[in-house]
Input
Amino acid sequence: MFNRNYKEKTIESVLFSVSVLTVVILFLICLFLFRDSLLLFKETSLLDFLTGKFWYPTSVNRQFGLLPLLLGSLIVTAGAIIFAVPLGIASAIYISEIAPPKVAEALKPFIEILAGIPSVVFGFFGLVILVPIVKDLFNLPTGQTALTGSIMLGIMSLPTIITISEDAISSVPSTIKHGSLALGATRWQTIYKVIVPAALSGISAAVMLGIGRAIGETMTLMMVTGNTAVIPSFPEGILDPVRTMTATIALEMGEVPQGSAHFHALFAVGTVLFIITFLINLIADLIKKRYRFKVD
Amino acid sequence: MELGSNVNENNFKSIRARGGLNIGLNARTSEKLAFALLTLSAMTTAGFVVIILAYIIYNGYSAISIEFLTEMPRMRMTQGGIYPAIVGTVYLIIGSMAAALPTGIMAAVYLNEYAGENRTTWLIEMAISNLAGTPSVVFGLFGLALFVKYFGFGSSLLASCLTLSLLIIPVIIRSTQEALIAVPNEYRESSLALGISKWQTIRHVVLPAAIPGIVTGTILSIGRVAGETAPILLTGAAYFLPRLPDSIYSGFMALPYHLFVLATSGTNITQTRPLQYGTALVLLMIVLGLNLIAVLIRRHYRQKLKI
Amino acid sequence: MTEAIQNVSHPQIEVENLNLWYGEKQALDNISMRIPKNSVTALIGPSGCGKSTFIRCLNRMNDLVKNCRIEGKVSIEGNNLYGKGVDVVDLRKHVGMVFQKANPFPMSIYDNIAYGPRLHGVSKKDMDGVVESALRSAAIWNEISDRLESSALALSGGQQQRLCIARTLAVKPEIILFDEPCSALDPISTSKIEELIVNLKNKYTIVIVTHNMQQAARISDYTAFFLMGRLIEFGKTKQVFQNPREKSTEDYITGRFG
Output
């Protein structure tokens, strides 16, 4: 009897330790990113890094300015969200409220497949198909532009936005829905006046997570945005090449000597990216909590 | 509820204003229009999938042959096959799953079966959702700093496997938790009521009942490992390596990185297009094949439970 | 009430001043009761009266409920279940429980019965005998002996419930708790289980929660009437039904509320 209790306690402690490992990993990520990033600031001040307009990591007068990369990430993400959010929410509404059950069941695998396609395949597809189309359509010197990146990224964020919105929409209690229909409202009126408002916080969480997914995407953007590290002008810069934070890390890390200022600058970019996605996830989490409470 | 009743009231007013039960033509027309747009959106989304798959399959299948799958790349990767990349991807899958699967399942069991509602649990849950949302390139940086540099594994299969395992641990935890939640509480109660200890109950009743869900989640994360590029690019994938990795400390080729290299920085990008399509198709087939298996397993068990 | 308690000369289960709270809400209020060996004791009362909560104190299933606090004493053969150093897992081997909803594990019929004994260390060669005798005692052997390897989930509701009883018997408890075992069953399955319970009392002490008063009257030797977390009346079934001491018991039995 004593033995068994001892065994039970041991197992519980082992399982507990393993789950605490997740916290340790998160802590180590912070520690190692910050540690290597901080070494940059022996060379460049934090302010210069955050507000610097030029990313010239290898020239004689090297400069590590974050702005071109940050704005590059933002413009591509914004473009993606502008078209993926309406499309994603509309698809989610169609699947959960309008489609006949059989059609909805048939559509779900498509969303799952879209979520499963590796980003490098999206990048490849964008490179061979979309880049020439954008080039010819707008008569540009190159089709590797922010817009191309936005379109590919938008398609890639659709599954996140659709699945989470759909969850939120289908968890709106049917009593609310029936109440509206019983008053003589049409199905569409019920959807946009009752169901969507009731699911709004869940949908917002979906949008946040879609943004998080988009801003962290690397390979696709590296392959279709042209990777030119200049501050994009707005709005016509959408048709120029840009370079995102993620692409910068992946492109340049292979060529820098370990321990150099450039190496640390890339870690600093990674830290900024980590903090941004951390905040986005936190917001999405908070929104989700509120919405769960509301549904109960 | 407050929200619902407000809206209902508004609807009621507007319906009355239009003369009772007679829903205006406008309402009907706008409904038709809106439904048409929503349908179109969903079809567009599905359309993207069809176009991407069709394009890659159409262009890729002619490149695929036994030689393509079993030979080394030749002539500066402009000819030959992708054998080492396939093997590298398989090694990555095995290595990262070996590290991530037990860890993820154990953490999920703790969280679902043991954890109370307290600060530690909150902290663990928070860490998991943040790890799940951290970009893969950040995991790459971390893997580079910790495994490659700090532990001194170098750019290697080991460093890449460990980095990828960190990336999928949150995925495995979440899917295992979902599978555990779906196990009816009655199973736990009746086992405990038979004088079976908690761990034995988990081991002999709860986990077996959750296995279909765990397997499904596992297979999906295998797909993720097969397709990830940024983390391995930073921790060990080789541009070109005409042999198989001979130890866990050696570099390796992998399908997604090979595709990236051929498509963006190969020696002759236009000439090697068929190789690129072929590589993309093989990668896609692996990932989608795994997805299909996951769907079939889920369906199989769902039907079995219906008896 | 006091008289009935004194009548029980050799109580197997002795409950003294049992109080139970779910968070702030008190669900059981100072319950004292002595349940005799080899008898059937029925717990009756309107929904929410605490009878199910009470029965779950007898094998400490309430331990699984968050925010549940218990005070008082429950003794079996003189050992306090809530005392220090009590092994709950061991306790539940001696006090089996059959639930409201038949809940066989998703395994074969054989494995359902063998599950408990196997984990308690019964060897493989003895297992067939253990399974057969449990199924026979639960009066289901004749119906299913030819398909022991098929899934337990394919059985009918009544058969599933008898399988669950067999599963409990296979662990060889001394006391069996039944928590509304027939509430989801048709009349024919119900009467089979009632018959079974009456037979089982020769070897086991049985406590059964039921909302069906005819059932209590048919099968039990003693009846306890609960109302709003209190034990209102406890005595020989005949006496409680034909000559209740308390007004509220009479009201409940004659159907004036509940």
Observations:
- Confidence is low (pLDDT under 50) at residues 1-21 of chain B.
